[in-house]
Amino acid sequence: MLIYRIDHVGQVTPDLDAQVALLEGLFGFTRVRSWDSPEEGCRGVRLEVPGSWGQAWEVLEPVGEGSAIQAWLDDHGGRAGLHHIGAETPDIDAVRADLETRGIKPTAGVRGRWLEASLSPPEHGPGVLFRLRGPGALGMCGDDDAVPETTETRDAPSLGIVALDHVCQAFPDRDELARWYADLAGFVPIWRTPMDEHPDMADLVLNIPGSAVCWEIIMPRGEDSFIERFWDRNGAAAHHVTFEVADWDRAMAACAHHDTPTFGENEGSTDGAAWRDAFIHPKHTGGVLVQLFWEERPGVWVRSDKIPAPWT
Fold this sequence. Notes:
By secondary structure, the chain is α+β, with helices and mostly antiparallel strands. The chain has 6 helices and 17 strands.
């Protein structure tokens, strides 16, 4: 199978209006269309992510009886969180056949226009959920008949996001999962940290052909790794989503204005250029761990001092 474009990150919430207000305010996202689809069991809003042309953020709230979105919320204790990654593929029927040969049973969306499946190795349990559709403008969240929206200019400061950089997934063996994604969907490994660079983790990043969004895999190492604890609770789930900001001081000022604390701050210099990063806890973002980074020059935050992946 081939994934040639990441379309959106899908988030589920019990309070659509409050979550959209947060994304418009602190994050500076722009609402572009909305829908109410009892057939799909949800209403939702699509928002543009600054600097991420073609990749959006969609927020879904359950509606109606028997809503699969409501079932997901119930399974997660009513807590909001990252629900799926929306992507396009050139041949949805070929995708279904390929997944089934690998022991992955996809679920068909309403009217069969999209498929939903975890793309992680099935022997490791559920992983990150993907919604996959064929080419074109067909909705996969009930947004086939979405209404275009305009957003009023907001005076409050925002993070100054300029790109959705990557989605990060936890897994016990980064090379095993990277090879799986490379074989399954053509993901291309582009860099990895040396095994001994961090005391509790090692990571590897893959490019998704046709998309500006990358895929990071983090694996535990050493004793009492935070990734091991995350794995014990969540399995092969998405760990965080990372955004690039244009100005670090502006981003921190926006967090202070919106009473949003950060944690895990790091700073350094690579090839003579500075970089900084930090996290925002899921309780302040609607259930998604968010990482922010700034770099003085493109490529210095994570890439120029890393060793290449062992295969191409």
